[in-house]
Design a protein that fits this description.
A six-stranded mixed β-sheet has the order 2-3-1-4-5-6, with helices on both faces. The protein contains four helices and six strands. About 35% of the residues are buried. The longest helix has 15 residues, at about 75-90. The chain has about 160 residues and is an alpha/beta fold.
């Protein structure tokens, strides 16, 4: 039995969370080296959690969960948010993807509070750092990355 033959329950579940258009799906694609998730400039492209069991070096066997934006609006948006929150219950590790050009907002802080309450280890990945003039110093569980250029993606996988 190879590493990719492990059943889902035996793999670390890594959830990617954040607001719409923060670049969660782009980061997932960069981390996996696959076009796992559909990507567009339109807010709300990811409508349901996308889950894929795979092996990622140096992590080993994992389940990647790409979620809809947690700031979705309207009746359908509320259902998407609910599904994203359900995915949080399956996550062993959380990656909060934040648009670096906007910074950490109230909704992002609410998510980090949820991660702490559920005792889920997390990292804040400031995506789109290639659009910043200067990159601020990252905190203890923070990292500046760019899904477009690949900057910081290896470091994210190492964490």
């Amino acid at each position: 039995m190879g590493l990719n033959d492990k059943v889902s329950a035996e793999r670390a579940h890594i959830g990617f969370f954040g607001l719409r258009n923060a670049g969660k799906s782009s980061v997932v694609n960069a981390v996996t080296g696959q076009k796992l998730s559909l990507v567009s400039d339109i807010k709300g492209t990811t409508t349901d959690p996308v889950q894929k069991a795979m092996e990622i070096l140096p992590l080993g066997p994992v389940v990647i969960i790409d979620t809809p934006g947690l700031d979705d609006e309207g009746e359908l948006g509320a259902m998407r948010v609910q599904r994203a929150r359900q995915a949080l219950n399956r996550a062993d590790i959380a990656v909060l993807v934040v648009d670096a050009t906007l910074g950490l907002g109230a909704a992002d802080r609410e998510l980090t509070a949820l991660f702490r309450a559920k005792e889920i280890p997390y990292i804040i990945a400031y995506n789109k750092s290639d659009l910043l003039e200067t990159i601020p110093e990252a905190g203890e569980n923070e990292l500046y990355i760019s899904a477009v250029t690949g900057s910081g993606i290896h470091e994210l996988k190492e964490r």
